[in-house]
Write a structure and sequence with these properties.
The protein is α/β, with parallel strands linked by helices. The chain has two domains: 21-157, no CATH class; 164-413, Alpha-Beta Complex (sialyltransferase cstii, chain A), CATH 3.90.1480. The protein has helices at residues 14-17, 22-41, 62-76, 99-102, 149-157, 164-184, 223-229, 247-262, 274-280, 315-327, 357-366, 368-372, 376-396, 410-413, and strands spanning 52-58, 82-85, 109-110, 118-124, 138-140, 190-194, 212-216, 233-235, 266-270, 288-294, 308-310, 330-334, 400-403. The chain has an eight-stranded parallel sheet with strand order 11-10-9-8-7-6-12-13. A five-stranded parallel sheet has the order 3-2-1-4-5. α8 (247-262) crosses α11 (357-366). The longest helix has 21 residues, at 164-184. The chain starts with 13 loop residues before the first helix and ends in a 6-residue tail after the last helix.
């Protein structure tokens, strides 16, 4: 399950803000299960030793689909891999794409893409995909296919060519950065964590009197707030908004680099994105902590010997609270406002900490199925229940949580400092 963040209401899109057609979502989910069955039965992952990737499309606008896929491949894959297409793709950069990526576009080889070591199905309409699902080397990367299939597949592809020695280096580097963070904040009792809800900027970070402040996601867009809050750690985890090829993700990364240049902030990300980030932004290598999500873990599982966090779908429970409990005993939570019943999206963000307008629209255009197949009500309900369970469990082990700003999330409303 991807970690999701939310946009500012008003960036209207039928895909992102329209009615949730749960029946259609369920049918697409069934199609996905059928398509994945051969790989699951044979326990197939991405093959080793891939030196070439072919891109094919099975629809009338195959040229556009292949062009878009070439752009995604240019971002996600190691430049040493050979890319094969049947026809020369358009040189025009997709409107949704981070302009920086167009400079990464590599020459492609013209030939039979089906002869490549790995074949990416950039579009799969009708029933044509069925003849390909029994081919072990075929992966569906159609952004209109289902849910997070496209974003998760490209995330997995970003590790192609990464050896076990490379992973050992990433893990060792992450442990070193984490230990430096622990030493820097040794003796910290109170940790402040800031979400990016509307109340984020309603409170002075200094008023919390925390030894460490942790920020997340699009807070990096507000340099004035970052300079005032001086977060020692910034976490981000979303495959669409942070590690994707859209103009939104590109703007986020540029702001991230800007903060890295003017501060000594540490950054934390999920393990699977480490090769991509270290390949594209080597200047961040000695500032990044890559943590591995794992099912069944408690919030206080993160330690110098085990860089593992609970596998959840929200950055608060996935990253912010685990780091807080690894570095302190009391956590003050701000800017996690929750969701109103009449919302038509995940929830609202602070206008001072978000990329709206055409940048937000670029994510809808780049990853349509990711938004189309989200059930916002179910997601929010699951998050609320999981947060209450995890906080209660941690409190039984001596940790303390308070909410410094109003929240519609029941677990935080019950722990409001004014209650």
């Amino acid at each position: 399950m991807p970690v999701v963040i939310a946009g500012v209401s008003g960036d209207s899109s039928p895909i992102a803000h329209g009615p949730r057609r749960r029946g259609a979502i369920a049918l697409r989910g069934l199609r996905y299960v059928v398509a994945q069955a051969p790989r699951r039965i044979a326990d197939l992952g991405i093959p080793d030793g891939v030196a070439s990737v072919g891109i094919v499309a099975d629809r009338h606008d195959a040229g556009t689909a292949i062009r878009d896929a070439v752009t995604r491949v240019a971002w996600a894959l190691d430049g040493r891999l050979r890319v094969i297409v049947s026809d020369t793709p358009s040189e025009r950069c997709p409107d949704w794409a981070d302009p920086e990526l167009c400079g990464l576009a590599r020459p492609v080889a013209i030939g039979d893409p089906n002869r490549a070591d790995l074949v990416l199905l950039a579009s799969a309409t009708g029933l044509r995909w069925m003849r390909r699902i029994v081919q072990r080397k075929v992966l569906i990367t159609d952004p209109n296919w289902y849910s997070e299939v496209e974003v998760d597949t490209y995330a997995a592809l970003s590790s192609l060519g990464v050896t076990s020695d490379d992973w050992d280096d990433i893990n060792a580097q992450s442990r070193s950065v984490f230990n430096r963070l622990r030493e820097r904040y040794s003796g910290t009792h109170r940790v402040a964590v800031f979400g990016t809800g509307p109340s984020m900027t309603s409170i002075d970070p200094a008023s919390i009197d925390a030894g460490l402040t942790i920020a997340c996601n699009s807070a990096v867009s507000n340099l004035e707030w970052i300079e005032r809050a001086r977060p020692g750690l910034i976490v981000f985890a979303d495959p669409v908004f942070h590690f994707g090829p859209s103009r939104y993700a590109g703007a986020f990364r540029q702001d991230l680099l800007r903060i890295a240049r003017i501060s000594d902030t540490t950054f934390a990300i999920p393990h699977r994105f480490a090769p991509l980030m270290m390949r594209r932004f080597p200047e961040l290598q000695d500032r990044l902590i890559a943590v591995r999500p794992q099912r069944g873990l408690e919030l206080d599982s993160l330690s110098r010997d085990q860089l593992r966090v609970p596998q959840t779908s929200n950055v608060l429970t996935l990253m912010m609270l685990p780091f807080s409990l690894a570095l302190g005993q009391e956590v003050v939570i701000a800017g996690c406002d929750g969701r109103k019943p009449d919302e038509k999206y995940f929830w609202r963000h602070s206008a001072q900490a978000q990329y709206g307008g055409s940048l937000m629209s670029s994510t809808f255009d780049a990853h349509p199925s990711f938004f189309r197949d989200r059930d916002y009500v179910a997601y929010y309900r699951a998050h609320c229940n999981q947060l209450e369970s995890m906080l209660s469990s941690a409190e039984e082990r001596g940790y303390r949580f308070t909410s410094a700003t109003p929240s519609a999330i029941p677990a935080l409303a019950r722990r409001d400092k004014g209650s």
